[in-house]
Structures are given as structure tokens and as C-alpha cells.
Amino acid sequence: MNEIFLKDLAALYSNPLVKDMFTDYFTRMQQEGAQAAAKFFNMAPAKKDVFGVGPDVFEKMAEFYSGFGFVSQKKHQEVLEENESLKKENAFLKEVVQKMNLKMFEEGSRGIQDAWQEGLAKQLEMSKEMAKTFFELFKDIKK
Fold it and tell me: ∠90-92-93 over CA atoms, to 5°?
């Protein structure tokens, strides 16, 4: 093949629109081809005699295409359903973690607030004692 042709082909395939359309076309072509082959094998009058290896051929085809990353529609649906389930579970777990963080923050801030109030109360008590001692000292000096 010509080098310029390969560069042009690579540039064309790098276009996201063409890439998506080509992938969609190729996937549909393979699915419809496999369905047509399955119909043909099932409709053939003496399929056991002529096509005795039909199921083996389909197994080999499935194995061949799975090497390219293709999966059956059933498997694809199962994966999509599992993905949705995992997204919901992930959202639930994020919410639980967020609530736990809020609760810990509330409890921690409540503890800090209690400690602050205790510290203020002790400081006030000490200030009262100091003032009392200070006034008693002046009383003794006046006498």
C-alpha cells in the first residue's frame, strides 16, 4: 500500500465521528452475519450431515471475535446492568461516608465546644480566686 494512502486512512480513522460510525458499522455487520449464519445452520435440511460442526464453528467465531474485544449482546447487557448497579451502590456508599463525616464533625466540634467551655469556666474560676486573693492582700495592707 502507498504510504500516503495509509496516512490518509489513519487521519480519517482518527476523526471521532468516522471512528464511531465505523465501529458501529463493523459491530452491526458482525452481529447480522452471525445471526444469518445461525439461521442458515438451523434451516439447512440435513444440517447434521452437512454442517455437523456448526456449533463448533460458532464457538470458534465467538472466540475469534472476543480476541478483538467483541462480546455477545447478552454479555454486554449483563455488564451494563452490573455497571448501573455498581453506580447506584457507589452513590449510596458516598452518601453514607458523607453522613459519617458530618456526624464525626458534629461530635468533634461538640467535643471542642465542651472543652472550650470547660477551659473558660476554669479560667473564670481562677480569675475570681485571683481577684479574691488580690482584694484580701489589699485589705491586709490597709490595716
Answer: 65
Q: What is the DSSP letter of 53?
A: T
Which ranges of 15-72 would DSSP assign to H, the alpha helix? 16-43, 47-50, 54-67
pLDDT tens digit sequence for 42-58 = 665 555 555 555 566 66
**pTM of the shown model:** 0.38
The identity of residue 15, as a single letter, is N
CB 38 within 8 Å of CB 58: yes
- How many CA atoms within 13 Å lie on the side-chain side of 97? 6
Q: Which amino acid, 81?
A: E
Rounded Cα distance between 100 and 138, Å, is 56
Question: What is the residue type of 114?
Answer: D
pLDDT of residue 86: 94
